[in-house]
Design a protein that fits this description.
alpha+beta; 639 residues; secreted; 5-stranded antiparallel β-sheet; 39% helix
Length: 639
């Protein structure tokens, strides 16, 4: 490896200015001469490059440590972590259980050992609902062309048949599209009896033919009453559309393109066929639900309207069933009380939905009723907390049944793995810092220059740079200070609750392990089973708790917030990605200063090279002139 960088040429920067005439006349290697004469200047530039590279590597090493410390802090000391060892609830080992299928139970941080007895659950809490009592959609029907409203004379039927003969329309049943054609068979059937009854028979036959069914298994029923044509399908959605934009045919039948017997979520309010029509002349409907104001335009789709209500703060959920063709609104909160209050300030939108007025059926909410330890209890929700135990009521019981027992018992085994993981990750963190602090620096390996890398393979470069990076933080006072604080705190922390880490079976791994910890599993298990409250106090006491003190040490090293000068020691030294400190730190500022120095050295080098090239070019020019004069003299003497 060392032979790859043995020459003085390979350790310096390349020429930056090659201007002028090379040694065409003198035969001298001008590049080599200029390179040799500027060796000192180029060496300064190369050393400056190496200095900057070293600082960048050092910054990366610092940030690697910062990342490790922050990840440890996030996992074990952050308030949002499930394994936050600063939180008293983390050490709650109470486990609540019950054999009953009528409830589900779980312990909270306030639970204590003991039992609860539920004598009966006589009623579950329910939510108030409002639902339309009739179909929200108008029927899929239309008034056919007739001379007298309400009836179809033979002349009316004959004229209608003439207008629709050979024409077609599309009928969609629950997404299945069929073409209904008024063909010769339809015409023959209708003309056999030029009355409303005859038309009904003909229309039903055409629909049955389109769907390939008979009277025994048909879904779509056609009715003609006077001059009214209608299509029905129990529990299904039917939609009529023009075929090839032939809306005229639909017009003769009194139908509209896209007309349906159910609500279509993607249609605008103005295009929906409500059974109770929207108030004429109103373009914006204003309503209030539980004090929250809503405004809807006629151009808004039904799905948009429902989404706004459901995502709003009114405390309700609105839905539509295409089976029943009814809207319903359910309160978010359960229990007795008026949890759905609807008022209309402009227009009759809620009335059209069937959720307001005489068309609305209101079902009041109920409270949960139960007895616990012989005491009757009323709650508005089926999720209740009693003595630190969360109880979810699932089914009612009979008073004479065997009472439900909830047992709360301490189970410290759940803390075993988190504490072992805490110690393991702590050891990894300490090992990282100690390895960097105790790593030896080999002065024979400096950062490679670009010219050096040109003569080396990728593997050689990788091996060299690994050795060059070693020892960058040897005996580093920042890392030594952090590691020392952590170790002295873990070994000499104030005893709380009458115990220390030693009483948990957590001790030093020995001098050779440089501050790492070791666990006696058996002793830790025993401590968890017998000293739960003392362990909680050891870690969580406000100022002297082990976890709180460790958190302060890590924050003092990795805090990224605040103005420069008030951040953590590692952050002040090297900064951290994606924060203001990324550019506001000591190493970055030093790199900027060194880059300015490098730029000055490069400017001087270029000027020096330019000056030397100019001199050699002048020499070559003079030699060329002398050669020309010599040739002329030779010619004169020959003549």
């Amino acid at each position: 490896m060392s032979t790859a960088v043995s020459s003085s040429k390979s350790t310096t920067s390349a020429l930056t200015a090659k201007t002028g005439m090379g040694g065409l006349i003198s035969g001298m290697d001008t590049d080599e001469l200029v390179e040799g004469l500027t060796l000192a200047s180029r060496t300064k530039v190369a050393k400056q490059d190496q200095k900057i590279q070293t600082m960048e590597w050092k910054q990366t090493a610092y940030r690697t440590v910062t990342k490790a410390l922050k990840e440890f802090q996030t996992k074990y000391l952050d308030v949002l972590s499930a394994t936050n060892m600063r939180s008293e609830s983390f050490y709650n080992t109470i486990n609540a259980t019950s054999a009953s299928t009528n409830i589900s139970v779980s312990a909270t941080s306030a639970a204590n050992e003991g039992t609860l007895t539920i004598g009966a659950i006589t009623q579950l809490a329910t939510k108030q609902t409002v639902q339309g009592n009739t179909a929200a959609s108008g029927p899929l029907s239309g008034k056919m062309t007739s001379a007298d409203t309400g009836s179809m004379s033979e002349a009316d039927v004959t004229a209608l048949l003439t207008n629709i003969e050979g024409k077609s329309l599309k009928l969609t049943l629950d997404g299945k599209v069929k073409t209904v054609t008024f063909d010769s068979a339809f015409m023959a059937s209708a003309r056999a009896k030029l009355t409303s009854d005859g038309l009904q028979t003909a229309f039903q036959g055409a629909v049955d033919k389109a769907y390939g069914v008979t009277a025994a298994n048909r879904t779509v029923a056609v009715a003609v009453t006077g001059d009214q044509l209608s299509f029905t399908a129990s529990g299904s959605q039917i939609t009529v559309n023009a075929l090839n934009e032939d809306t005229a045919t639909l017009g003769f039948l009194g139908l509209k393109d896209g007309q349906s017997n159910k609500m279509s979520p993607n249609k605008s309010l103005g295009d929906l066929g409500f059974a109770i029509p929207l108030e004429s002349g109103v373009e914006t409907f204003k309503t209030t639900i539980n004090g929250v104001k809503f405004e809807f335009n006629k151009t808004d789709s039904l799905s948009t309207v429902m989404s706004r209500i459901n995502s709003g703060n009114a405390g309700v959920s609105m839905s539509y069933s295409s089976i029943t063709d009814k809207f319903s609104m359910t309160a978010t909160n359960s229990g007795v009380g008026e949890n759905i209050v609807i008022s209309e300030e402009q227009g009759n939108f809620m009335t059209a939905l069937g959720l307001k007025g005489d068309g609305a059926d209101v079902t009041a909410g109920k409270n949960a009723l139960l007895t616990v330890n012989g005491v009757a209890i009323t709650r508005t929700s089926n999720d209740i907390v009693i003595d630190g135990v969360k109880i979810s009521l699932l089914k009612t019981t009979e008073a004479l049944e065997e009472p439900i027992t909830i047992a709360m018992k301490a189970d410290a085994s759940a803390l075993l793995e988190p504490i072992k993981s805490f110690v393991s990750d702590y050891n990894t963190m300490i090992d990282l810092m100690n390895s960097l602090v105790k790593e030896n620096k080999d002065s024979a390996y400096a950062p490679l220059t670009d010219s050096q890398k040109e003569d080396m393979s990728e593997k050689q470069i990788e091996t060299w740079e690994k050795k060059a990076k070693a020892g960058l933080l040897a005996s580093d006072p920042v890392l030594r200070g952090i590691a020392s604080q952590m170790q002295s705190m873990m070994y000499g922390s104030a005893v709380k609750g009458g115990i220390s880490l030693y009483d948990l079976g957590i001790t030093s791994a020995g001098y050779s392990e440089n501050g790492k910890l070791v666990i006696d599993d058996a002793k830790l298990k025993t401590a968890l089973e017998t000293k739960g409250s003392a362990i909680k106090e050891l870690f969580t006491t406000a100022d002297t708790g082990l976890a709180n003190k460790l958190n302060k040490v890590l924050l003092a090293a990795t805090k990224t917030t605040g103005a420069k000068g008030s951040r953590g020691s590692l952050i002040e030294a090297a900064g951290y990605e994606s924060t203001m400190s990324d550019t506001e730190n000591n190493i970055t500022e030093s790199i900027e200063r060194e880059n300015k120095t490098k730029k000055k050295l490069e400017t001087r080098l270029k000027a020096e090279e330019t000056r030397l090239w100019a001199k050699f070019t002048a020499m070559e020019t003079a030699l060329s002139q002398l050669n020309n004069q010599s040739a002329m003299l030779t010619q004169f003497s020959a003549s």
